[in-house]
Amino acid sequence: GQQLNQSPQSMFIQEGEDVSMNCTSSSIFNTWLWYKQEPGEGPVLLIALYKAGELTSNGRLTAQFGITRKDSFLNISASIPSDVGIYFCAGRTLTQGGSEKLVFGKGMKLTVNP
Amino acid sequence: EAGVTQFPSHSVIEKGQTVTLRCDPISGHDNLYWYRRVMGKEIKFLLHFVKESKQDESGMPNNRFLAERTGGTYSTLKVQPAELEDSGVYFCASSPGQSYGYTFGSGTRLTVV
C-alpha cells in the first residue's frame, strides 16, 4: 500500500532555532497536509497544499508541495517552547471504494529546550 | 462550535472483551472518518461514512470491528472480541465534504491486556 517516509523521527532543538522536516513517497498525492498533535489531543491541521510546487506559509511555518507530487517539507522558524509536539505529514488519496482518505507519515517528535 | 467529541478518552479491557467507542462529529458534518494509530506506527484509515452510509470500509482490520452511524449523527466503533493487537489510539474526524479539511477528535486510547 501507499506509504509516506517521514524524517527525521525526532529532533531536539534550542528555542529560537529553525527546524525542517520532510516526507517522501513513491506514490503521487494531490494534496499534502501537515498536522501537529499535542499530548492528549488529536491532530490539528497546520498547512494544506493543493498544487505541485506550491509554497505556503502560516506564521512561522512554511511548507512546500514538491514538483513531482511525491514529497513535501515543513519548516518552522524561530522555534518556541509551545512548538513541542508530534508533527505528521499526510497525503490525500482515493480509496479502493472511491472515497478519500489520508495516508500519514509516522510523525516527528519535536522537543524544544528553553 | 463544538469540536469532534470522542468517548471514552481511555479504555482498558481484557482480551476477549467487547469495547464500544463513540464519536460525535461537528454538527452538520456529513463526512465522518475513523482512523487508528497503533504504537510506533503511522495513523491509518479505517473507514468513512457519508451521513449514515458506509462510503468505504477498506481499512477495517477484520470482522471483529463493526462501525455504525445511527441516523447520520454520532458513530460507534465496536471491537468484539478485543485482541492485544487492537491496542492503540482511535481517532474520529469529521468534515463538511470531501476535499475539505478534517477536524479530528482527541482520540480514545484503547489498551487490551
What does this molecule look like?
The complex is a heterodimer of chains A (114) and B (113). Chain A is an all-beta fold and 114 residues long. In chain A, 0% of the residues lie in helices and 57% in strands. Chain A contains no helices and eleven strands. Chain A has strands spanning 4-7, 10-14, 19-25, 31-37, 44-49, 55-58, 61-65, 71-76, 85-94, 100-104, 108-113. In chain A, a hairpin with a 2-residue loop joins strand 6 (55-58) and strand 7 (61-65). Chain A is globular. The model of chain A has no long low-confidence stretch (mean pLDDT 93). Chain B is an all-beta fold and 113 residues long. Helices cover 0% and strands 50% of the residues of chain B. Chain B contains no helices and eleven strands. In chain B, strands 2, 4, 5, 6, 9, 10 and 11 form a seven-stranded mixed sheet that branches. In chain B, strands 1-3-8-7 form a four-stranded antiparallel sheet, with no helix packed on it. The model of chain B has no long low-confidence stretch (mean pLDDT 94). The interface between A and B is medium-sized, with 28 and 26 residues.
Keywords for this entry:
heterodimer; A: 114 residues; mainly beta; 6-stranded mixed β-sheet; 5-stranded antiparallel β-sheet; 11 strands; 0% helix; B: 113 residues; 7-stranded mixed β-sheet; 4-stranded antiparallel β-sheet; globular
